[in-house]
Amino acid sequence: MLRVAVRPRFLGLLALMVAATLVCGLLATWQWDRAHRAITSRSSPTDVAVPLEEALPLGGAVTNEVSGDPVLAGGTFAIQEQVLVPDRRIDGTTAVIVVTALHVEQEGGGEARLPVARGWIPQADVTGPDGSLDPALVPAAPSGHVEIRGLLEASEAATGGIEDGIVHEIATPLLVNAWGEPMYAGYLAQTSAAEGLSPMPSAQSSFQAGLDWQNLGYAAQWVLFGAFFLYLWWRSVRTAYLDERADELTRLSARLDAAAAGSSENPIDQKDVTGVDPDSATTR
User: Fold this and answer.
1) Where are the beta strands (DSSP E) in 20-165?
2) How would you write the pLDDT of the chain (284 residues) with one tens digit per residue?
3) Among candidate residues 226, 209, 215, 214, the one with its CA nearest the CA of residue 33
4) Which long-range contacts (CB under 8 A, 24 or more apart) does 166-174 make?
5) Phi, psi (5° rounding) for residue 245?
6) Quick one: CA dihedral 109, 115, 121, 125, positive or negative?
7) What is the rounded CA–CA span in Å between residue 1 and residue 98?
8) Which overall architecture, per CATH, does domain 67-201 show?
9) What DSSP character marks residue 154?
10) Is the dihedral angle over the CA atoms 184, 187, 193, 197 positive or is it negative?
11) Which listed residue, 22, 142, 217, 239, has the most CB atoms within 10 A of its CB?
């Protein structure tokens, strides 16, 4: 098989596959570095809170570099723009998270909405006699201008909708449809004191909790792609080698069949060999 592999055609194909493998290796290294930075940033969180406009411009995405960072935000809560997120397990308790829209003034004028998870409350405390959640039992948001501190979180994936002020994900695509725009991406998990509510714990979003595994998975995929390119070259060489062997066997078999057929069509005449016709020979 080596004589097939060293042919110019397969050597050129090998060079192409090696180049593709190197590219996959570079991409795998890049994803590994991103995963390492995400793990490092979460293992050494900063305690310095930055203003919202510095951490997340309006229209910007909540990336892994800023997810979980402490942020300061100022604005006015819109009491009518509020949803409850039930069935969350926090500190061993089945809890309801209270999410309210904070209207943040913009430098160019106007306001933008920032979803704020103001805190959580045991689900039993906001469950009415009929077994359903009663928004009237939730502590009201403070009025007037407020300054809050919280952790910046990415939006959760939307799998349902909002029904009677109840939603099962803190998903900005759902909230913007219900409250209007403009709206910041992601939300703020309030860690400062909120009357009647317990402060939000960190890493509530699945984005922040699992991002390092996502990048590590991407790195592993690129390694597999690189190995596949080399396997593809080896498979091509092996297939060409086996095809040539099969052709050689076919030609050899055809020659043997032709030789056997020729022998059967021209049998050796005994008279030609001995000079005597066996049918006319007499016994002495």
Assistant:
1) 50-51, 70-90, 93-105, 111-122, 145-153
2) 777 777 888 788 888 888 888 888 888 887 777 666 655 555 445 568 888 988 888 888 888 778 888 999 999 999 899 999 999 888 888 999 999 999 999 888 889 999 999 999 999 998 988 888 988 899 899 999 999 999 988 888 888 888 888 999 899 989 999 999 899 988 999 988 788 898 888 654 444 444 456 667 778 888 888 888 888 888 888 888 888 888 888 888 888 878 888 776 665 555 554 555 555 555 44
3) 215
4) 166/83, 166/84, 166/86, 166/133, 167/83, 167/84, 167/85, 167/99, 168/85, 168/86, 168/87, 169/85, 170/85, 170/97, 170/99, 170/115, 170/117, 170/204, 170/205, 172/115
5) -60, -40
6) positive
7) 69
8) Beta Barrel (2.40)
9) P
10) positive
11) 142
Amino acid letter, 91:
D
Element containing residue 189 per DSSP (H, E)? strand 187-190
Residue 189 Cα distances to 42, 46, 181, 251, angstroms: 16, 16, 20, 77
What is the pTM (predicted TM-score) of this model? 0.58
Q: Does 182 sit behind a cis peptide bond, omega within 30 degrees of 0 on the bond before it? A: yes
In the chain, what are the domain boundaries? Answer: 2-43+214-238, 67-201
Q: Which helix H or strand E contains 190, and what residues bound it?
A: strand 187-190
Q: How far is CA 35 from CA 39, 47, 63, 224, in A?
A: 6, 22, 13, 18
For 253, the enclosing helix (H) or strand (E) is helix 206-265
Contact between 50 and 165 under an 8 Å Cβ cutoff? The reply is no
